[in-house]
Each structure stands twice: as C-alpha cells, then as structure tokens.
Amino acid sequence: MNNFSTIANAIYDGDQNTVVAQTKLAIEEGNTALEILEKGLMAGMDHVGKDFKAGDLFIPEVLVASRAMQAGMELLKPLLVSQKIKSPGKVILGTVKGDLHDIGKNLVSIMLQGAGFEVIDLGVDVSKETFLDAIVTHKPDLLGLSSLLTTTMPQMPEIIDAIQQAGLRDQVKIMVGGAPLNEKYAQTIGADGYAQNSSIAVEKAKELMSI
Ligand code: B1M
Description:
Bound molecules: CO-5-methoxybenzimidazolylcobamide
CATH class of the largest domain: Alpha Beta
CATH architecture of the largest domain: 3-Layer(aba) Sandwich
Order of helices and strands: HHHHEHEHEHEHEH
Distance between the termini: 39 Å
Low-confidence stretches: none
Number of strands: 5
Strand content: 5-15%
Largest sheet: 5 strands, parallel
CATH superfamily of the largest domain: Cobalamin-binding domain
C-alpha cells in the first residue's frame, strides 16, 4: 500500500499519531527513509506552506503540523544516519537570530550526520556572538547558516563580517541555506556555498571539504 499521501495528509492535519503510525508502516513496508521523507513528510509540509501563504491556515495549525513533522523525522533519523563512516569534517549549524524555523535545518543536520559529518547544532535564534564563540571553541571545518525569513537573511552577512573581523574567516568554510535564499545572494554576502535542500547541502559540504 502506498501510504505517502496518508502521511502527507496527517502532517497537514497535525495528526501526530497517524504520522507516527504510518511512517512506521512505510518503514516496515520497505520504503527508503528518503522516499518517506520526500513523498510523505515534506509533501505534507509543502501543502501547509502553500495554504499558510494563501491565508487558509494560521500559525497554530502550522505549529501543530510542524510538531507532527518533527515526530515523523525522529523515526527516520536513525535510518538516515545509520551508516558509520569516518567523519569527513565538523560542522556547526544554526538558524540565525530572530528566526525560529528549524525543520529544514534539522533535516540538513540529519542528512549531514548520515554522510558521516560531526554536527554541532546551536539551534534557533542564534546570535553572531554565539556563532563566533562556537567557532573558537569547536574549530569546525564548516559553518552552516539557515534562514527562512527575508527579515532575518541580513543576519548572514553580519555573521560573515564578524567572522572576518575576528580573523577566523580562512579557518572555516561557510554554507548558507533556507527558502528565501539563492546562489546569487550567497555569493553577494561572501558565503562559500549555497544549498537549496538537504541533499544538495550534503553534496555542497563534501565539495567544500574537497571530498
Ligand atoms: Co513560518 N514562514 N513564520 N513558521 N513558515 C514561512 C518561512 C513563510 C515562507 C510562510 C509564507 O508566508 N508562505 C513566511 C516567510 C515569508 C518571508 O519572509 N519571505 C513565514 C512567516 C512570515 C512566519 C512568521 C513571521 C509568521 C508570523 O508570526 N506572522 C513567523 C516567524 C517566527 C520567527 O521565526 N521569528 C513564522 C512562524 C512559523 C512557525 C513557528 C509556526 C513554524 C516553524 C516551526 C519550526 O520550524 N519549528 C513555521 C513554518 C512551519 C513555516 C512554513 C510553513 C514551513 C517551513 C518548513 O519547515 N518547511 C514556511 C512556508 C514554506 O517554507 N513553504 C514558513 C519544510 C522544510 C523541510 O523546508 O525550511 O525550506 P525548509 O528547509 C529546506 C531548504 O530551505 C534547505 O534545506 C531544507 C530541507 O530541504 N535549507 C538549508 C534550510 N536551511 C538550510 C541550511 C543549509 C542548507 C540548506 O545550509 C546550512
């Protein structure tokens, strides 16, 4: 049985129990974690995004849908990160200050871990000072910045400038991502790379590590 649409609909309805039950079923039926993620969970969240934009859904519904999505992701995470391989590098990840969106960032984190990267996730609403401290403390190979709002995108060049000012810019590669961004913006603000989604984020991270 194809239960991807059941999962997508349950995400839309914020029905966490159905998302969990159907995701478990889809795993048992032998679907790959990536397939369940893309055709089920992400398809549901896409629908939420469209209706939220159109004014047919409101914040409380979007929040409940997000929680259902996170519950499904928890089940897929062990499958996506199961293969144990030598770490290609250390990544610090965070959503920039003023921005509370973390579903995409969490997916990027899961996929990077799946590719063997060591990921230190600073969470959401992360200030440039916190990013700087983390770079000094953890000495990552890569810094990943996420922003979902046009109002928080300008945090990114500020963070990059602060890293430059602190003399740390040549110690760390910087990758940016999030729905309102694009390649041109990444270049303009002096990032080393931009990724449109979590799979491309893994490819880009490897490219930046010269793997
Ligand atoms: Co908000 N929100 N939201 N929201 N929200 C958007 C982003 C919005 C586009 C909705 C819309 O109007 N269509 C809009 C932004 C408009 C804009 O700025 N252009 C918006 C708004 C306006 C807001 C509020 C301001 C609403 C309000 O209060 N009036 C408010 C802001 C709160 C804040 O952050 N300060 C707000 C709040 C929320 C919730 C809290 C309710 C919830 C977030 C819950 C959470 O994240 N824990 C929420 C949600 C869920 C959304 C939508 C519906 C879905 C986002 C999502 O999770 N997508 C979103 C609409 C949409 O995007 N279609 C919307 C699924 C996820 C897998 O995709 O996050 O794009 P995405 O991540 C992708 C890529 O972008 C990329 O890879 C990911 C995986 O493929 N990527 C990276 C992301 N980060 C990356 C980093 C990388 C590389 C790739 O390298 C480091």
